[in-house]
Design goal:
Its cofactor is a divalent metal cation. By secondary structure, the chain is an alpha/beta fold. It has a five-stranded mixed β-sheet with strand order 4-3-1-5-6, with helices on both faces. The chain has three domains: 100 residues, no CATH class; 156 residues, no CATH class; 169 residues, no CATH class. It contains 23 helices and twelve strands. The protein starts with a helix and ends in a 16-residue tail after the last helix. Bound molecules: zinc ion.
Length: 502
């Protein structure tokens, strides 16, 4: 085999000559090695025992997830040599790169990474920091003794990563975090009293330990049907925890090897490679900021924390979720809704208007996915509140609920839950026909778990507002349009009709 490569090398040019990288243009180089040539040279300065060929082979492996056999062809060496090069580069970078760029024990650096968003939302003093904890799985293939590896890692708003673990997949997030305080006392000592910790519901069993034994302030999204204040506080947490998904998306996009299950035989190297990848992300990547105009949004969110959801009070008092008689049904279809629009008079909105309602991009992106789901059914059901004078709901006076509105129009819509098939949420939007743009959207409420929030809105509400005020007037490219045609859908039995009152 080696003779073959020797021959190949002498007869043809090998694809990648790491000692002569100037022969490759920068974008091709980046496509194969995840970084441009300047960045590559910088990475090599941390290699003390390995050379640019070793580092190049490792980066190519992480970037492309090709087999060692395939990589051997590109570098003109045999397969065993590829394995050795990767091992040499990993050992070297673990010793000389990783300690410099992850799990830093420099608290000042950690404090400097706190963003204006988390500072404003959680009132973080200048000598305190804000940390987000999360755990993720690494799937392993080809193992008779199947067990997912679970790595715990925490990271700070501006993508300053800590990586701890890995732990057995059988442990939950709370158990892992509690164990980290005992197992890694030196790493965890960077956390001081009154620091702010943002966790998700998976950590709820460790919250008491954190607050009582570690003296930190923990924020976690609430469970179940939330009142407006809890729904708003939950939004504060998700607004900052959004970064977690971003970091994983970055990792998998940059290094394809982490987007596929790990090989059982090379698990130890796989974990070390993950540390190197995270160190590189910390070294080169720009901070992920949670908002384009984050300080304004943070101030706006803070100012709305205690705003009650008046429309919820109206809906509950008059039982509008169940009342059908007072509403005029308007069926939206994929094409031609001119007549419906004339009947509904919903305002035209811009993307900026939508953003100032959702206070973040997530709900707007979700709206497009929800729309795609509904579009397949060819229908979008909206109804307009138009009670007969004799109906008891005709007694609704918005001023009784502290809502100032000139020309009110209340609409109700149905949406399917994304997670629980068949369960419907009721969405209510109250707008002022006398006004235009963002100002016309007065109140909104949804019967889902976080639908009462007044800091931003849930994705269901955004879908309705997005579609009626923006989506239907713009070319909408739905994500993966062909995906529903790939597999056969067996129709479900019709769900029981929703209980209604006339
Ligand atoms: Zn909702």
């Amino acid at each position: 085999m080696f003779e073959y490569y020797k021959e190949l090398k002498s007869e043809h040019e090998i694809t990648f000559d790491m000692n002569n990288i100037d022969s490759v243009d920068d974008s091709t180089f980046k496509a194969w090695f995840a970084y441009n040539k300047e960045e590559f040279k910088k990475i090599c300065t941390y290699a003390e025992k390995s050379n640019s060929v070793h580092v190049g082979v490792l980066l190519c492996k992480l970037r492309t997830a090709l087999s060692n056999q395939q990589i051997s062809f590109l570098f003109g060496v045999c397969e065993t040599t590829v394995g050795n090069y990767i091992k040499i580069a990993i050992e070297d970078l673990i010793d000389h790169l990783v300690p410099k760029f992850i799990n830093s024990d420099n608290r000042t650096e950690l404090i400097n990474h706190v963003t204006p968003m988390s500072k404003a939302l959680f009132d973080i003093p200048i000598d305190k920091t804000c940390l987000i904890f999360d755990a993720t799985y690494r799937l392993v293939k080809k193992s008779k003794n199947y067990s997912g590896q679970k790595q715990s890692w925490s990271e700070q708003k501006k993508c300053h990563l800590f990586v701890l673990g890995p732990f057995d997949a059988t442990h939950n997030d709370a158990t892992i975090l509690k164990d980290c305080f005992q197992r890694y006392p030196s790493e965890m000592s960077i956390i001081h009293e009154n620091d702010v910790i943002l966790v998700d519901r998976g950590f709820r069993d460790v919250i008491q330990f954190l607050t009582e034994h570690k003296g930190v302030k923990v924020h976690c999204p609430g469970l179940g049907q939330l009142n407006t204040l809890d729904a708003n506080l939950s939004r504060f947490v998700t607004k900052c925890r959004w970064i977690v998904e971003q970091v994983f998306a970055r990792l998998k996009m940059k290094f394809k090897i982490f987007a596929i299950p790990a090989h059982n035989s090379t698990l130890i190297h796989d974990y070390q490679a993950l540390l190197i990848a995270f160190a590189l992300l910390n070294l080169f990547h720009q901070p992920i900021l949670s908002d384009r105009i984050n300080e304004d949004v943070a101030v706006l969110m803070k100012s709305r924390l205690h705003i009650p959801n008046q429309l919820q009070s109206i809906v509950e008092k008059f039982n509008l979720s169940k009342v059908r008689a007072a509403f005029l049904q308007i069926e939206y279809v994929t094409l031609d809704n001119v007549e419906n629009n004339q009947q509904l008079c919903f305002p035209h909105l811009t993307l900026e208007d939508l953003y100032s309602i959702s206070l973040g991009p997530y709900q707007i992106q979700n709206a497009i996915s929800y729309y795609a789901e509904h579009q397949n059914e060819g229908i979008f059901l909206v109804s307009k509140f138009q009670p007969d004078a004799r109906h008891r709901t005709a007694a609704i006076r918005y001023t009784d609920f502290n809502i100032t509105i000139q020309d009110p129009i209340l609409i109700k819509a149905y949406m399917k839950s994304r997670y629980r098939g068949g369960k419907h949420h009721h969405i209510f939007v109250l707008f002022d026909k006398a006004l235009t743009g963002r100002n016309s959207i007065k109140e909104y409420f949804c019967t889902c778990e976080s639908g009462a929030r007044t800091v931003g809105c849930c994705s269901h509400i955004m879908t309705i507002i997005w579609y009626l005020g923006y989506g239907q007037y713009h070319e909408i490219s739905t994500p993966n349009p062909g995906i529903c045609d790939v597999s056969i859908t067996i129709p479900k039995e019709k769900p029981q009709p929703i209980q209604t009152e006339n």
